[in-house]
Design a protein that fits this description.
Structural class: alpha+beta
Shape: globular
Number of strands: 11
Order of helices and strands: HEHEEEEEEEEHHHHEE
Radius of gyration: 20 Å
Oligomer: single chain
Number of helices: 6
Distance between the termini: 21 Å
Helix content: 10-25%
Mean pLDDT: 94
C-alpha cells in the first residue's frame, strides 16, 4: 500500500503536469474505478468536462485535486491509489491500449493527458465537496478526508499535541503509529523504519512511553519519510511509480522492513519478522527488545 512519500511523489507529478489546466473531458473505462462516486460514471464524466484543476493536495496517504468554483474551489476530485493505482502522464491522443487503464483525464490545450491505471482495481476516483477543516477556517479538505489527522510533513503538524495524544492511548505503539486519525501518512514500511531508528519495539504499550520516547519515534517517522521522498519513495515492484512510470529506490536504504534474517545495520543481529495484523512486522531483537508484556 503506498504511504506518504509515494503519494507525495504522485501529487508533485500532477502539480507539475496538470494544475492550472482545463479538462476537455474524462473517459471512464471501468465502472469499478468510480464506484465511490455514487451517481456513476456518466455523472462524473459530465461534471468534469470543462473544469480546471486548481491545486493538487494531499493529507497523509490521501490525494485530491481542487476544481475551479465561484468564487473559490468548493469541489474536489479525490483519487484513491489503493494497492496498485498509478497516475501516468501520456502524450495527448496517445492510443489507450494499456490493459489496466481505468480512467483518462484529457485536457483541452493539446498538452499531456493523465491516465489512472490500476491492475487490482482497489483504487478509484470520486467527486466530493470541500469542507472547512474547522468552523470558519479557510483551509478545506474533501468530506472523506475530514477525519484524517495531519501528517508529519504538514506545515501545521503539531508534534507536541500528537505526543500527548499518543501517550493517552491504550494500545501497542505500532498500532498507534498506523492510526490515521492520530497521525497520518505512516504505513507498515515507515512504522517499522521509525521504530528501528527510535530503538523502540512496536508491541510497547503507549501508556508506558515517556514523552521523550514518543517524540523520538514521531521525529524518526518524519525523518525517514523525508529521506524516502528524496529518493522517489519505496518501490518493491513495478506498481509503485511516479507519473513518468519511474520507480523510487528507497527500498535499498531500508534497515528493518523486509529484511528478515539480514544483519541489523547498527549491531549486526539478524532482523526478526513477527506476524502483525495479518501482515509482517520487522525489528532488531537486540536494538529493539520485546517488552515483557507485548501489546500488539
Amino acid at each position: 500500500m503506498p504511504e506518504l512519500p509515494e503519494v507525495e511523489v504522485v501529487r508533485r507529478g500532477v502539480e507539475l503536469h496538470a494544475v492550472g489546466r482545463t479538462l476537455e473531458r474524462a473517459v471512464v473505462h471501468h465502472p469499478r474505478a468510480v464506484r465511490r462516486h455514487l451517481p456513476g460514471a456518466a455523472d462524473l464524466e459530465s461534471r468534469l468536462a470543462g473544469r480546471r484543476l486548481m491545486a493538487a493536495r494531499r493529507r497523509g496517504k490521501y490525494l485530491w485535486f481542487d476544481l475551479d468554483g465561484d468564487p473559490v474551489p468548493d469541489e474536489s476530485l479525490v483519487l484513491h491509489l489503493g494497492m496498485s493505482g498509478q497516475v501516468l502522464v501520456q502524450p495527448a491522443g496517445h492510443s489507450s491500449t494499456h490493459p489496466h487503464l481505468r480512467v483518462e483525464l484529457l485536457f483541452d490545450d493539446g498538452g499531456p493527458d493523465l491516465w489512472f491505471v490500476d491492475q487490482r482495481t482497489f483504487g478509484g476516483l470520486a467527486l466530493e465537496p470541500l469542507l472547512p477543516v474547522a468552523p470558519g477556517a479557510d483551509e478545506t479538505v474533501p468530506a472523506s478526508v475530514a477525519h484524517i489527522a495531519r501528517d508529519p510533513l504538514d506545515p501545521a503538524y503539531d508534534v507536541g499535541s500528537v505526543v500527548e495524544a499518543l501517550r493517552r492511548k491504550d494500545t501497542g505503539l505500532k498500532r498507534a503509529l498506523l492510526d490515521q486519525t492520530l497521525v497520518s501518512g505512516i504505513g507498515n514500511i515507515y512504522a517499522d523504519e521509525a521504530l528501528w531508528r527510535a530503538r523502540l519495539h512496536g508491541a510497547r504499550s503507549t501508556r508506558t512511553l515517556r514523552r521523550t520516547e514518543a517524540r523520538r519515534v514521531l521525529d524518526a517517522a518524519a525523518e525517514v519519510m523525508r529521506e524516502a521522498l528524496g529518493q522517489g519513495g519505496t518501490s518493491f515492484d513495478a506498481l509503485y511509480v511516479d507519473v513518468n512510470g519511474e520507480s523510487g529506490y528507497f527500498d535499498r536504504s531500508l534497515a528493518a522492513y523486509g529484511q528478515a534474517g539480514e544483519p541489523c545495520p547498527r549491531c549486526g543481529t539478524p532482523i526478526r519478522r513477527d506476524a502483525f495484523m495479518n501482515r509482517s512486522s520487522y525489528s532488531c531483537p537486540h536494538c529493539q527488545p520485546r517488552p515483557r508484556n507485548p501489546h500488539w
